[in-house]
Amino acid sequence: MSRLQLHDLVWSKPMTEIARQFGLRDQHIAKACDGVDIARPRAGHWQKIEHGKSVSRSALNNDRFGAGDIVAIDASGWSISRA
Predict the structure, then answer these.
(1) Which among 48, 58, 73 has a CA at the least distance from the CA of 8?
(2) Cα–Cα nearest to 22, from 82, 69, 75, 79
(3) Which of 37, 61, 49 is CA-nearest to residue 13?
(4) Is 70 helix (H, G, I), strand (E, B) or coil?
(5) Angle at 66 between CA 10 and CA 55, to 5 degrees
(6) Angle at CA 40, nearest 5°, toward 80 and 82?
(7) Where are the beta strands (DSSP E) in 26-76?
(8) What is the spatial distance between Cα 59 and Cα 50, in angstroms, rounded to a whole number?
(9) pLDDT tens track of the chain, all 83 residues?
């Protein structure tokens, strides 16, 4: 998926749900996000949402990688290819 799609996904639901959806470990997704400059929600983010508190969403940083660059994640790691 593209960096933009991964960014939107990471900010739409908890990492454990994403990992289960794709049959991966949440650590693999987290490492890929860190490697391709995708900010992740901080600890407590989803609990705040559950309790109706306001939270902020980090914008996608496109300094090193483009929003359309493709990120591939599997059990052995991650890779990125330019769009």
Answers:
(1) 58
(2) 75
(3) 49
(4) strand
(5) 30
(6) 15
(7) 70-74
(8) 22
(9) 999 999 999 999 999 999 999 999 999 999 999 999 999 999 999 999 999 999 999 999 999 999 999 999 998 999 999 97
Tokens for 9? 């996904």
pTM of the full structure: 0.91
* Adjacent-strand bridge partners of 2: 70
Q: Which of 83, 79, 66 is nearest to 4 (CA)?
A: 66
Quick one: tokens of 16?
A: 């454990």
Identity at 67, one-letter amino acid code: A
Beta bridge partners of 74: 77
